[in-house]
Amino acid sequence: MDAQYEKDAPNRLPQGNDGEDEIVRQRKDKLERLIAEEGYNPYLVEKWDRKHSLAYVRENFSHLAEDELDESVTIVTAGRVMTLRKHGKAAFANLADETDNLQLYFQFNAMGEEKYTFAKKWVDSGDWVGIVGHPFRTQRGELTIHVRECVLLCKALRPLPEKWHGLKDTEVRYRQRYTDLIANPEVRETFRKRSKIISSIRKTLEDHGTIEVETPILSVLAGGANARPFKTFHNALGMEMYLRIATELYLKRLVVGMFGRVYEMGKNFRNEGLDTMHNPEFTAMEVYWAYADYHDMMDLTEEIIRNAADVVCGAGNPRKLRFQDVDLDFDKPFKRGSMLDLVAEYTGVDFRNISDDDEARRIGKDRGVEIKGTESRFTVLNLMFETFVEEKLIQPTFVTGHPTEISPLAKRDPENPDYTRRFELFICGKEVANAFSELNDPIDQRGRFEDQLKKKEAGDDEAHDFDEDFINAIETGLPPTGGLGIGVDRLVMFLTDSRSIRDVILFPTMKPLPSRTREDGGEDAGE
């Protein structure tokens, strides 16, 4: 950098307040010098005709012997320079693309003075480059591209995270997913698996003649699940609206409308806390089949999950996966048990023998369950299940027979109307799927909506709204129907051994950082 340029630089660029900002300043200076001295602006490069991925190079030239150069083949590739080591008339770099990474070898004699000097002077780690060269294996045995031409495609003004030694700070990883993906190839692999799992789910459903549909995300009512919704306001209509918490009620309207098998995979929104299993914005899949029941939905759930496990394990391999030090076996038939039986098994309390709400509440209190004093015996049963049973269900387990009181959209068990034809699937103590033989009795449905409305008026902001149009729909006639919902993010977690739901959502919900200003030297505003 010449003396005058160095003197003027502070007047042109904002001064950094830490080491990273100083590197950004230096790189901006370097970009300005590149444009001024070479007349070259990398941001004006519009296209690079990449012919070979790095995975292709590795796959097709791994046979090269040590110190062997194949000049009969010209490789045209591109990627990001991850590391760079310059030594006089030779330089080495590590180049990465979305498929692999390979060493680059720059040599003065092979490239010529002009091209070699340009690459050595202007290319830095983090930059995107186009490469023309020949496959080569070094004397140390490393497969390499012997560079003949290096084209700077994009200048990186910010340094790679932690000099490419790995980005470990989870806050930074989630907030700046792009740097996480650069620094941690295993994260990229997780999201590739997620994409394959979602494709597998779609294929399984389509193989069963199920069509994919889209229903509203914005609605005047938030129904289909017990959850607190996000509210918004539509200015033109002058009315409050909600982001959907589930797709159920719209999809069942479509079955009424003569679509025999439908499904939707997309975003739902629930105004709840954030933890390793919850994100306010999440991906769910719901499917509805006319003429099916919840037993059919169990079979479908097992098929969906086994096919998804195949894309992770490889078709034909055992569907055995490890999740956070737990060995999961998806080959075995999933265990099935009623809520009543499981609570009796794990607590010794058989709610079949309890007919009095006061007695149920007393038993719950004695066992340490938080009781408010108004719970029915059915609510206490569910609280006992959540407190003492859920965490014990490690291998895939279908839990059936939920109380009607907590299942406002499920068909009653004709042999015991206090319970429903419903199941939830648990893996490692967490709910992954929920399914019903769908309630299609409009009179019963109206009554259950009225019960939910009473709970809402009593202060339960997660109770269902009364959806009069949905009642109209099933009064028009909903055939016997099986419905299933799967939490896609959670399923991906278990299939990819991901500790948190944030590890399988590219851009999870995060609380904004305090604002920063230049006027106060870059400190957090207001502190």
UniProtKB/TrEMBL annotation:
Its EC number is 6.1.1.6. Residues 191-512 form the Aminoacyl-transfer RNA synthetases class-II family profile domain. GO terms for biological process: lysyl-tRNA aminoacylation. One of its GO terms (molecular function) is lysine-tRNA ligase activity. Its cofactor is Mg(2+). It is an enzyme of class 6 (ligase). InterPro entries: Aa-tRNA-synt_II, aa-tRNA-synth_II, aa-tRNA-synth_II/BPL/LPL, Lys-tRNA-ligase_II, Lys-tRNA-ligase_II_N, Lys-tRNA-synth_II_C, NA-bd_OB-fold, NA-bd_OB_tRNA. Mg(2+) 2 binds at residue 431. Residues 1-22 are annotated as: Disordered. Binds 3 Mg(2+) ions per subunit. Keywords: Aminoacyl-tRNA synthetase, ATP-binding, Cytoplasm, Ligase, Magnesium, Metal-binding, Nucleotide-binding, Protein biosynthesis. Mg(2+) 1 binds at residues 424, 431. Residues 1-10 have a biased composition (Basic and acidic residues). Signal peptide: none annotated. It comes from the Bacteria. It catalyses: tRNA(Lys) + L-lysine + ATP = L-lysyl-tRNA(Lys) + AMP + diphosphate. GO terms for cellular component: cytosol. HAMAP family: Lys_tRNA_synth_class2. Belongs to the class-II aminoacyl-tRNA synthetase family. Homodimer. This is Lysine--tRNA ligase. It comes from Aminivibrio pyruvatiphilus.
